[in-house]
Amino acid sequence: MIKNILLLLTCSICILATAQEDFFTQYNLSKTNTNSAFTGSDSAFVLSSAATFPTKEKDNEIFFSADNYFHFLRGGLGITYNRESLIAGSLITSRINLTYAPHFEFFNHRLAFQPGISIGYFQRYIDWSKLTFGNMIDEKSGFIYDPQETKGLDRKSNLDFSAGVLLFTKLFYGGFAIHHITQPDEGLASPHRLLSRYTAHAGANIPIGSYFIVSPNLMYVQQGDFSMFLTGITAKYKWLVAGASFGNSNTFVSTIGLQNRFFRISYSYWLQNSPNAVNEIHFNWFFKHKNKKQLSLRMI
User: Fold this and answer.
1) Residue 54: domain span
2) Domain count of the chain?
3) CB neighbours (10 Å) of residue 98?
4) Quick check: 29 pLDDT over 60?
5) Is residue 150 in some structural domain?
6) 211 pairs with which residues across the strands?
7) In a domain, 63, yes or no
């Protein structure tokens, strides 16, 4: 029975992994999660965090990152952490990645190019306290007994590698990333390769007057049979930020937030062709970095 349960959970998580694995709609804010080449592209030391909260399920994801440009490395160095809780919290996946992106400039500091790499480690495990079995049930009192099953393999870890490239000017940016290049084994009951994920993204920050910025953007994600295309526009007036994105599978994302030169907080509501919508919250803190003369990028 345990083997069957593990197989069922593994199949379920693999289906989910080929769909919206490690995916945030506010991808411009969880930037190093989108593309390791974003590491150190800002003119500040940046701390970022994010969380998703589906409205009808107990599944959720949290994200944290820190990145900065270092002169002695001639590029950016960062760290990211993800934790996914799936299938009512019974399957947990934790990932930690180190990212590095060297910085190159051309045409008298008008164009910047950053290739990026990510070296990561992930661990997937089953929380047995969240699982229930038939022999735990008393006909009158319900779930009162301890499970009698012998636990099988309940933990799997592996290395993971990703890479990407980024081009940007003062107004425009675009890039491409490949996650899970080596397709590491993530299976519990049986071997299962985590499919490579391909991401293409582009956008612009176009100032209109002294206080207004318009940012059209788009992203395409392909992983196995799953694909997601999002295109939208975000506008910023003084501190206020608002935006909307549309995509395939009847996807609609609305975003509202506050942003200045020190921080950003934003909330988005993601509604797809599914009864389960997703709430998403992002926090970003920007700490001034002294003597950084390189061309830099901050998205809205």
Assistant:
1) 2-196
2) 1
3) 15
4) yes
5) yes
6) none
7) yes
In a domain, 120, yes or no: yes
Whether the pTM exceeds 0.70: the reply is: yes
Which structure tokens are listed for 164? Answer: 């990407």
Question: By C-alpha distance, which of 281, 28, 282, 13 is closest to 122?
Answer: 13
- Out of 113-122, 133-142, 248-257, least confident range: 133-142
50, 54, 165 from 246: Cα distances, Å? 21, 19, 25
Identity (one letter) of the amino acid at 135?
N
For residue 173, what are its two tokens?
Answer: 């940016």
Task: Compute the average pLDDT of residues 279-294.
Answer: 82
- Helix (H/G/I), strand (E/B), else coil: 208: strand
pLDDT 10s digits, 51-108 = 987 755 557 889 999 999 999 999 999 999 999 887 666 788 899 999 999 999 999 8
Paired residues of 228 in beta bridges: 221
Whole-number Å distance between alpha carbons of 125 and 92: 6
Distance (Å, rounded) from C-alpha 40 to C-alpha 179? 19
Within a domain: residue 266? no
